[in-house]
Predict the 3D structure of the following.
Amino acid sequence: MTATPTHDEHGWHVGTVEPWASAASYTVLSPESTSVFALERWAHQARRFFGTQLTGGPQKHYESGWPRFDSGTLELQEGESSPRHSVRIQTLPRDRASALLEQARIGVVQMGGAGFDVLVARTNRVWQFQCAEQHAPTSGSLLAAAIIASVALGPILAPDGALFGVKTARERLASRPR
């Protein structure tokens, strides 16, 4: 029996993507509607602001638009002697992420708003990140979410239900055990 391919000849995910539970991933709430994997831009951002090498796959081609749903893997390394993180990434439009958006609204209420209510309301697309080996959130998936959030200009919904920006993500990354 042959397995169904996950990606087509353009590198796009075949079929729909179901959202991962908020407790099982980091989620970036993006105001952008595009699902383009901007790997060059993300890699530049990762190097410049996070001291991280970022690559990804499969290779994507966007000659005629972009897919409604997509997925792939990011490889991240924070310095030459650091371990490499393999992170699964997926993206889906707002209309397929109602439970995630509700969790984000709960996070906004718990933090007293702080302008995040506006950011959540502007969400058009969600990007989710999990450790590829464990299918769970890790510091690698937080790092990937922070990089993408810094490009997408959207907040991060953490597995613990907290909602925060890139600054807090950097603080969480800096306080993790080495």
In short: The chain is about 30% helix and 20% strand.
